[in-house]
Design the sequence.
């Protein structure tokens, strides 16, 4: 058994998680982990699919059903994307009085 962060074999048992799974601890980098975690990182392909579905204006609940991510994770992901988006709009008036948004 190796630590996924530092590849050390200096691993000890460190009690149980709140879900009853065995918890391990690396003595070299102090990382705690389970061997078979319930929650796995979201892949870049899934994130790309989520962004495509958002552009198609699919509801968040439908995106959860399609991709298999949790609603809580999806909401925090969408909120992070929203914060990173610029909120400034440039409006200019053309000669005929029509507004254009750039």
Sequence:
């Amino acid at each position: 058994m190796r630590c996924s962060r530092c590849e050390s074999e200096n691993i000890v048992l460190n009690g149980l998680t709140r879900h009853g799974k065995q918890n391990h601890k690396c003595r070299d980098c102090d990382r705690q982990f389970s061997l078979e975690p319930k929650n796995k990182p979201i892949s870049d392909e899934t994130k790309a699919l989520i962004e495509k579905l958002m552009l198609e204006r699919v509801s968040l609940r439908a995106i959860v059903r399609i991709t298999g991510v949790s609603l809580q994770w999806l909401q925090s992901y969408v909120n992070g994307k929203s914060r990173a988006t610029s909120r400034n709009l440039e409006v200019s008036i053309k000669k005929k009085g029509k507004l254009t948004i750039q």
